[in-house]
Amino acid sequence: MADEATIKIPSGEVLEDDDEAPGPTISLPDSSDVGEGGKLSMIVQLVKKCLGVKDIAAMRLSLPASLLEPLPNLEYWHYLDRPDLFAAINDSNDPFERILAVVRFIFTKDLKFVHGKVCKPYNSVLGEHFRGHWDVPPVSYSSDPTQPPILRVHTNIPSQTALAQGSETLSVKSNRSGKSSKSTRSGLSLTSVSKSKTSPTLSTAPTSLGDAGLSKLSLSPLNGSGRNEDKDKDNVRVVYVTEQVSHHPPVSAYYASCPSRGVEMAGIDQISAKVSGTAVRVAPGSFNKGIYINLTSGPGMGERYHITHPVANVNGILRGSFYITVGDSTIVTCMGAKGVAYRAVIEYKEESWLGRAHFLVEGVIHTYNEGSTEHEEWTKVKHVPTARVVAVFDGCWRNHVRWRRVAASPPALSTSLSPASSPSTPSFSTPSLFQTEYATLVDLSTLFVVPKKVRPLERQLPNESRKLWDAVTTRLLAKEYGEATKAKLAIEQKQRDEAVERKRKGVEFIPQYFERDISSGVPVLTAAGRKAVEEELKECSETWPSSS
Q1: DSSP state, residue 363
Q2: Most buried in the list 97, 135, 262, 484, measured by CB within 10 Å?
Q3: Pairing mode, if any, of strands 26-27 and 61-62?
């Protein structure tokens, strides 16, 4: 076996370079019909070729450019669709509210799948890297601690009709309604779907970003029109760096940080995909151990949150109308807590084979003993002992999720925000929440993807995603699909040629921004990686255009 791209992984295997990938390259001819009919025909051909394949993600697969979204893969996957909620994780002095903030972040990290269409970005090449940042105003808080943070950019106030429909459909009522659906644990009713007219957000497949109304986004602190320049001075910056460290199988490492709030995130991205019936089932790859969030300063200093990934299904393949459903569970474990140790189970309900998808979710936040292992078996809501549960939540992961404390909860701690929080935010004491009605954890129908800032092409390195794929992107946007495919094939061939040359010289591929040892699931920045982060933190990007 060739020794290039040798990366240490948990199983002791090695990640291979492109020329060592198993099997011949599978390609589809570019259809002369670039309309929806032609694309659907190519998709059906692709599904046929993938039947019986154990892992589609590990195949040597070359698609026509016309099937791709003009977007690099490394830019597409970043878990920071709401960087303001990522930065807010460390705002509270109360450890319970910090894990509640982590759960809220999880529901918003992939907001693109709530309002946007499912798409196929470019396949990353070995050594490709991407970096960018977000400048966002910090969230503020209501005097009522049960209410979610007040977000100041890229929000939209829902109509009362939509709220009412959402409540009826999922039995999720406002905390001010004076009513609460009853349940032994969480109040989630899986059989209470109303036969009356329901909200499109709840029952239909995802729409495109354009259909989601991005042109109507509010950029002002109070959801009005226009931008408040004075508030921009208070912005916090979140930076992101990622690099493709293996091509077969495709593996990338990523790191994000908001130093002013003492929050950082890192992990390894790899997926495993398989055709299952009329859907593609997507699960974490063997090297993907989840997302790791560290609190490096502030009230939660020393805490580390491990977030596992659920399993997703891309549906509607044979109709050419893709939408995502989620199954299994996401587990959030807080380690290194100074007092009570918290853990959360987010359980995505399996969809029925009949009827439309409802995208239901329920979960609990519970205490656990860090020194024991019994909690590792608690992967579903029903597994968690009632005496351990301190809060429950339920709803629709594409619309409205509510939460409340439960009777088993101990009295809430006296709470105030950390000094890093918005100076206009009042301090408050938490009331007895275990007798309070359900409150909103997050209303996804009001939130949209926050655009990122990326350096202009002329300042990017040759292997930086946007510059590397610029010839393909330019031709795709011009609808020159044949030329776009030629440009794409040229990039792929160049990668193979470079792999052959490394093999001939006996030279190993070494990632630029991350250390080669990824066995822990938490990548470590190299000196070049730390420099890239520092440069991104110092960038003056006021005049740069933003992009989703």
Answers
A1: E
A2: 484
A3: parallel
